[in-house]
Design goal:
Radius of gyration: 36 Å
CATH architecture of the largest domain: 4-Layer Sandwich
Largest sheet: 6 strands, antiparallel
Number of domains: 2
Number of helices: 11
Shape: elongated
Amino acid sequence: MKDKGKDNPVSLPGAQPGLGAAPANLAEARELLAEQSRTLARLQFLVEASKVLNSTLDLPELLGIILKMASENTGADRGSLFLVDHQRQQLWSLLAHGLERKEIRLPMGQGIAGAVAQTGEVVNLEDAYSDPRFDREFDQRFGYRTHSLLCLPIKDRDEKIVGVLQLLNKRDGSFRDEDLEFLQGLSVHAAIALENARLHLESVERQRLERELSLARNIQAALLPEKPPALDAFEVAVRHESSLQVSGDYYDFLFPTADSFVFVVSDVEGKGVGASLIMSNLQASLRAIIMQVHSLEGVLYSLNESLVVGARSKKFMTFFLGLMDQSGRGLHYVNAGHVPPVLVRKHGEPVFLKEGGMVLGLFPHQRYQRGFEKLEPGDVILACTDGITEAANPQEEQYESERIIQVAQTNRQRSAQEIVEAIFADVAAFERGGTHQDDKVMMALKVR
């Protein structure tokens, strides 16, 4: 007879066909049950994690949530979550768990996190110091000792690496396969949440820029004259064109005495609200100084001192100031590093107005020299910003001042406004198809 005990083994309670051998004893059964409970708990946690991760669009907060979930559920002591900046080929982090918040940046490929970002491979080490890629500077700086380390990529829907999660020192030994499986499950939800937060951040940034540009436009509109002055001895025309929604170019007209007027053309470094605020400061300072200081050299000296003392940003500007004597038809001027205006004479060679000194706002105690030119009826003074002279065609050739002179000479019988419009039209034709676009100011003063 057959031994029934051998042919028909008795199964332990809970054992199922096809799931492998049953536990050999009660201790193994309890461990298997505990493992299943942990797995179920982690699956339930991932479901809840998806809800939590999508509850915020604040990027710093989201990074903190992801790192906290990863650390607490794997028993890691510390960790870092890096985002990948593919354009700069860098990794950056807004926080490091267990330390104060700070931004950390490192090149792609540097260190273990940089290598994971570059290759997409998971790194799991029992002793981080055994891997030559590990950077010990962190430990040395903060008196820490890294032992176990787990580093894995976070990928988006298109399998593009968008982040790197790095955990240090598992409290009960080394990181296990179940830790990696949990983190890979978490990373799926984290990648979606990070993408949503990134898009939200870009939207917020666009809105901020739009508000800034709107404010800058309002500031600039209040600074620039509504129209050129109507004078007996001179015909004045000006046109301003911005490449963006606001520019760093500035021009103005002032009347210090009944028989003279001042025209200004300037180019402030940069654009946006910052440049507009500097322009506002420049205008206020100029109008105050010009009524108190009676020499052009003194005006430029005082203006430079005011800007050097007041400008913490260390921005500079080019500046041309011309003083017209209406009755004597004389031009006194100072050029502080600006594109030299040109005097296109009715008879004689053109004259570039270069006399002056250094740009404003960089160094204190600068001295400036005054230039002078006697004017005749039919002479035309042309002043502009470098958006005109540096306009580039598709071959990267620049427009330059010689073409301005040619257009003015061709149109010398026409009005100042028509000369300005002719130059603008010629510049537009020249740079059509080019890539360099800049703010432009063109001013013409024609002697009657």
